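Quick question, first post here. What does this chain look like in 3D?
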Amino acid sequence: MQYDTVFSIKVKIKYHIKKVSDRISSLIMSWKSVMSNSLLKVSRPEQGVLQVQINRPKVLNALNTEVLTQIADELSKVAEDPQLRVVVLTGDSRAFAAGADIGELQQAASGDFPEAERQKAWSTIRAFPKPLIAAVSGFALGGGCELMMAADIIVASRNTQIGQPEINLGIIPGAGGTQLLTRAIGKAASMKLNLTGAFISAREALDLGAA
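> Answer (accepted):
Ran it through. Tokens below.
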């Protein structure tokens, strides 16, 4: 009987040591990910969940080519991970992503714009085989709206503002916004957003079927 008790205690100790070790390993992995990538904050807040946070607060998380490429790279790394169940893509309280990087767009005038690289990143994001959740707060405009629409599930806070304001710059949505919105909310509502550049709230998006 005494040996059974000792054995039981040893098993319990080993179990708890393994749990602590797994937790420490997870924390170290999260810390390394966050520290190694200034444009994204990548973490595993709990088992089976990867969080990818866009980290360009000074430009409202504008989506330059480097950010899109890094998002695509992070998704590619975990696409075949059997331990991963879901990815949460988010920004901060002010902006999920306020569109493309205007400074980078200006390069297009000189023909020095990495269009092929951007489209490759967009294709990788859209083809991600696991559930992708967009946790949206603040502005989700232009490319940010298109990134949000690439997710399987959209969770939006009350202060969310959604729109495709490219028309105000004399251009059209470049990452599928015209098609994605039309599929989600219908032709009339999509045309209104794309042709006027108007924003809608999270409640309006929910009512229209976009969130």
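Confidence is low (pLDDT under 50) at residues 30-36.
Residues 145 and 196 are 15 Å apart (CA to CA).
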